[in-house]
Design a protein that fits this description.
47% of the residues lie in helices and 10% in strands. The chain contains nine helices and five strands; from the N terminus they run ββααβαββαααααα.
Length: 186
Amino acid sequence: MGTDAAHTLLRASFFMQNLLEVHRTDVVEHDEIFVPAGDGKTSFVDARDLGEIAAIVLTESGHENRAYDLTGPEALDYHEVANVFSDVLERSITYPRPSVLEFGVRMRRRGTGLGFIVLMCGIYTTARLGLAGRVTGDSQRILGRRPRDMRAFVEAYADKFRADSETTTVSQLATSDADSSTGDDR
């Protein structure tokens, strides 16, 4: 049964914000990026860019019945991600390259649910197998500018990755971003 309803698919790669929301504790408490991605590359996308893209697609014509693969401008392995964190935060952040088992044990000890651990292991296995590094030009074409890279993301949220910062949630980040764009300094 078909439909004539217009649609647009936004297929986003790995959100940079996952490093803040899910993996912040490892950066703050252990000075490391602790994910079971092996040496595989990942094409990250900043959720702020995705939000802008969604607004453009919803308010401008020419996007009906299209599908976009949204990535940032580069694919990085997690050694490279750790180097960006080190440069921006001005302290050594490492990537110890944990196994899936080591990752699962650490997350479980932290109280993370088994289902979420399995989901994350599946996601990181795509990078481990070399399947997560595809970079497209869709984000840049829609935005009309280069999408944010990892350095821009870490610079924007550097204070959240410092040991003395309080735990932050994605909803708090969204509120913070909205406040900064309106000039509200709450």
